Amino acid sequence: MKVTVNFGGTGVVVPCKDGWVVRDLIEQATQRYRKIVEQDGEVRVRTHHVEYADGGILDPDDILTDVVEDRDKAFVMILKQGLFS
């Protein structure tokens, strides 16, 4: 299964493993997003919460396959702090 996670205008595709919870998706998506934005310098990114594409906040402790399907989209609300060189 793979899920596209959108950080504002930037989407990252995350291949998901069996047994993952939403928290695992959040960690992997944030790590991939960080790689993209840190090309211009270090940026601190903290994920506030993740919303399902149809609305509703995903609970980090839910089993991923119970709340999303293959090729679903989710949107991340983030707090981004400064650019550090």
Automatic annotation (TrEMBL):
GO terms for biological process: cell division. Transmembrane segments: none annotated. InterPro entries: PAR3, Par3/HAL_N. Pfam families: Par3_HAL_N_term. Residues 1-74 form the Par3/HAL N-terminal domain. Keywords: Cell cycle, Cell division, Repeat. This is Par3/HAL N-terminal domain-containing protein. It comes from Coilia grayii. The lineage of its organism: Eukaryota, Metazoa, Chordata, Craniata, Vertebrata.
